[in-house]
Specification:
With 468 residues, the chain is of the alpha/beta class. It has 16 helices and 15 strands. Bound molecules: adenosine monophosphate and zinc ion (ZN).
Length: 468
């Protein structure tokens, strides 16, 4: 299996640190709002990577954090007049709902930065002891010049960065020994969440979180560290500096980065304000369509979001689901029970599609080509499985189709259609719960309906509903 390593800028053969095991860490979102579909790209891509390793028989330990202490969370909390914890707890729960809708497996562990402060104090302490970090007026900085390999991941010219790019400097720059030094610990400002430390009451910098959580849940050396390409510098570069300076070992063997999801050919981001949330998309489409859309391009190619491409993904997905549905029907209704010899030969021919699928995935997770192989199987199935054939044959093709689509995280089962009367009854129940101020249950009902593709619209004339 070959994967592209940002560190070496080459596709490399995957050799695990420990035989039969994959330890991977994927940087997760900062939780101060609903996630947008740009954030969903790494989630979908690396969940698919994980699923392929599992398909190959590896035992995957998949860790993905939630950054739950951050300036943006504090700002949002102040705006709403609630605690930062309330904000992060709320959006972690919402993010998990979105993940479920996109059929993203929960990580083996989803650590929270605020629960790992002790580990961060330990690592920062070690870095100071070893001369890789220093404290000035309660702030602790990493001493980048001391880590000779600093810059090895991003392949940047550090001298240019040092002298030219003043915008990289963050507040407190005058105290730094070097413009590239970055914060490990910072003292609190009025009204901010803070923890005791030997240096000041304060909170950790962003980069140290991931070094600590990765070490705690996966060990000092891991196989794959991943995230969006914007994280290469400085986030991942800084993680490498911290982890390798502290542990004296290579941190991750392979560094994988997805390209950006763009909209109107500009990067989609919260700061540009041009983003669409996953939740918004779920009101228009089944989130399986979003997943399919993301996988229709190679993960290292930029992908432009458009209504046309979403529509194309919707119909492509329908073709797969219909083929599966047809096979299911034949599994119960085809004429013969057992396969004929001819059908047996026909099943053997599907090995070709499975091989094409695997070859595509082994070539740096080329999901676009893997999907093409699934379509070849769909065409084959549509032409060879008929009611004149056997139940067993339809079942064999169904099994292969499910096995491959499951690697992509695509569910081929048709969603059960809800009866209008059941929908109306649930809406009435929700109204009653709202009247009784039981908002948690009311929200639960809305989510239950959404999961079944029913969107509620609160209008002046009362609650209306539509199918997504
Ligand atoms: P953030 O919450 O901004 O730290 O982002 C969480 C993850 O989403 C990181 O891996 C980012 O690289 C990734 N990400 C953010 N915006 C996009 C985008 N437009 N396309 C692809 N990945 C993105
Ligand atoms: Zn990270």
């Amino acid at each position: 299996m070959k994967l592209y390593n940002t560190m070496t800028k080459r596709k490399e053969e995957f050799v695990p640190v420990e035989e039969g095991k994959v330890k991977m860490y994927v940087c997760g979102p900062t939780v101060y709002n609903f996630i947008h579909i740009g954030n969903a790209r790494p989630m979908i891509v690396f969940d698919t990577v994980r699923r392929y390793f599992e398909y190959k028989g590896y035992d995957v330990n998949y860790v993905s954090n939630f950054t739950d202490v951050d300036d943006k969370i504090i700002k949002k909390a102040n705006e709403e007049g609630v605690s930062p914890e309330e904000i992060s707890t709320r959006y972690i729960a919402e993010c998990k709902k979105d993940m479920e809708g996109m059929n993203i497996k929960p990580a083996t562990t989803h650590p929270l930065a605020t629960q790992e402060i002790d580990g961060m104090l330990d690592m920062i302490g070690t870095l100071i002891e070893k001369g890789y970090a220093y404290e000035k007026n309660g702030t602790v900085y990493f001493r980048t010049r001391r880590f000779e390999q600093y810059g090895k991941l991003s392949h940047k010219n550090l001298d240019d960065l040092r002298s030219g790019n003043r915008t990289l400097l963050v507040s407190g720059q005058d105290e730094k020994e070097d413009p590239l030094d970055f914060v490990l610990w910072k003292p609190k400002k009025e009204g901010e969440p803070a923890w005791d430390s030997p240096w000041s009451d304060g909170r950790p910098g962003w980069h140290i979180e991931c070094s600590v959580m990765s070490k705690k849940y996966l060990g000092e050396q891991i196989d794959i560290h991943a995230g969006g390409e914007d994280l290469v510098f400085p986030h991942h570069e800084n993680e490498i500096a911290q982890s390798e300076a502290c542990n004296g070992k290579e941190f991750a063997k392979y560094w994988m980065h997805n390209a950006f999801l763009n909209i109107d050919n500009r990067k989609m981001s919260k700061s540009l304000g041009n983003f669409r949330t996953v939740r918004e998309i779920s009101e228009q489409y089944d989130l399986q369509v979003l997943r399919f859309f993301m996988l229709s391009a190679h993960y290292r190619s930029p992908l432009n979001f458009s209504a046309d491409l979403m529509e194309a993904s919707k119909s492509a997905l329908e073709r797969i689901v219909n083929a599966a549905d047809n096979l299911k029907y034949l599994m119960n209704n085809a004429k013969a029970d057992a396969m004929s010899n001819e059908e047996r030969e026909s099943v053997a021919k599907t090995a070709e599609f499975v091989t094409a699928f695997e070859n595509a995935m082994e070539d740096d997770f080329n999901t676009a080509d893997a999907i093409a192989a699934v379509f070849d199987l769909v065409k084959f199935s549509n032409t060879t499985a008929t009611s004149e054939g056997s139940k067993e044959y339809a079942g064999a093709l169904y099994e292969i189709l499910v096995k491959l689509t499951d690697v992509l995280g695509i569910i081929v089962e048709k969603k059960e259609e809800m009866l209008d009367a059941d929908i109306e009854a649930l809406i009435e129940e929700r109204q009653a719960e709202r009247k009784a101020k039981n908002f948690a249950r009311a929200d639960e009902i809305r989510d239950e309906l959404l999961a079944k593709g029913i969107v509620l619209l609160d209008t002046r004339e009362g609650v209306k509903w539509k199918k997504a």
